[in-house]
Design a protein that fits this description.
With 234 residues, the chain is of the alpha/beta class. Helix content is 37%, strand content 21%.
């Protein structure tokens, strides 16, 4: 049984989501504000948070920022706004996926199940004993660490998995769909732009220049590839 925290200031929405998630076999906790959500997360073991963006007090984006300073729990943003900026900003600070209102509770339950399966081997980095090395770049799978120019780089769990898939096959071009299947899981469905947002975040953390990439390059119309210098070794 996995524990899901539903954070929404509308009791009806919490009630509907609770019903679907409990029917799917999850334990469900509730919070009606960002402040209350952080309290619950500090006192209970939670596997995934369904986090509404528009909350009283501190909003969902700020709640997520604060949460990410102490936890790598899975987070799915829920927003009533159609504007892309809200969801993209949320993903950039560490959300794993998003859904927009109005939504189908059945779809939300399916998204929850897909995200939760990520820590059951959905991601596909290579043998954990390997260390992937390129000039100025080291990715240690066993230690879950990345260094650029001998300096440690902080990545979320999802960002690390995404970078590991790319770095393990330098020069190979991955489509967004391939990356979604390997990192998010084979049964994931949703907006493929989630890949773009996480790639953007990875580049920022690595100090990579999109116009002259040292590590992750865009292949226009196709996807992304790792471009470590020739001669890199594991």
């Amino acid at each position: 049984m996995r524990t899901v925290l539903v954070v929404d200031d509308e009791p009806h929405i919490r009630q509907v989501l609770r019903g679907y998630l409990e029917s799917a076999g999850h334990r469900v906790l509730e919070a009606d504000s960002g402040e209350r959500a952080l309290e619950v997360l500090g006192s209970d073991q939670v596997d995934l948070v369904l986090l509404d963006v528009m909350l009283p007090g501190i909003d969902g984006i700020e709640t997520l920022r604060r949460l990410r300073t102490t936890s790598d729990v899975f987070v799915i943003l829920v927003t009533a706004r159609a504007e892309e900026v809200d969801t993209l900003v949320g993903l950039a600070v560490g959300a794993d996926d998003y859904v927009t209102k109005p939504f189908s509770p059945r779809e939300v339950a399916a998204r929850v199940a897909a995200v939760l399966r990520r820590d059951r081997g959905a991601a596909a980095p290579p043998d954990e004993s390997e260390v992937i090395r390129f000039p100025g770049f080291v990715l240690d799978l066993a230690r879950h660490e990345v260094q650029v120019d001998d300096a440690p780089v902080e990545l979320s769990s999802l960002e690390f998995d995404l970078l590991a898939v790319l770095a393990a096959a330098p020069g190979r071009v991955f489509s967004r769909g391939q990356l979604l299947r390997q990192v998010w899981g084979s049964d994931w469905y949703g907006d493929e732009r989630v890949v773009d947002v996480h790639i953007r975040s990875i580049r920022a953390r690595l100090g990579d220049d999109v116009s002259a990439p040292r590590f992750v390059a865009t292949v226009r119309g196709v996807g992304y590839k790792f471009v470590g210098a020739a001669g890199g070794a594991r």
